[in-house]
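Sample pair:
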Amino acid sequence: MTDLPRIGIVGVSGRMGQVLHSLVDGSDQVALGGVTERVGHAWVGCKLGDLVQSHSADMVVRDNPRAAFHCVDAIIDFSSPQASVANAVFAGETNCVHVIGTTGFSADDLVKIADCATSATIVRAGNMSLGINLLIKLVEQVAASLDEDFDIEIIEAHHRYKVDAPSGTALMLGEAAATGRGVELHAVQDRGRDGMTGARQRGAIGFSAIRGGTIVGEHDALFSGDGERLILRHIATDRTIYGNGALKAALWALGKPPGEYDMLDVLGIAT
């Protein structure tokens, strides 16, 4: 039995699940405590050692978080909104840390997660990259410094399989720009242009989404004025950065009181 913090991984067969398994399996700071997959998935009931190379070869893939995570210290979850909300309820019942990298939540989903955070320690971010979260702070500062003579456009690109748009990260950047401007994003956002849309509205924060190939993640915050442009950019080339950020968040959150935190809290740069 290890004394290291035990990490549970949601959706171990997925792209992020496999990244997280590799990082946890090779870590000297944490140990693997349990893994899940969705109901009906081919991996359910199988031993990890029969599926992937793993130090926890005899660990069985479960489709029930209560069976898989009964003794973990933290759950890392890049799954689906529905699954993440259910896992937040479980985390609240068992007082374990819940790190959520899932995107695409509805307003109702976010209310449910906030309710769970009264008894669970939750770290939720649309992007777990340390670099992108520093970019978010920069976008807020630049937006606060430049007035509405500068148009703001958030441009993001992801692989062909991504199902939500704009990305969670793009929305985080938009929220940061709106905060810098002292406005509510929902009041100034422009998410789609098609046909005779008319001229751009002064003060609008626009979004453009690109989907194709195997793009991991690219995000630009464009501040476009008369005769000059400022572009703040982050390019991800390897999903490992998201896994490293999630593990950092899990370790940071251990022992923290219940509440909903984000990566700015983890980095110590929250306002």
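The two ends are 40 Å apart (CA to CA).
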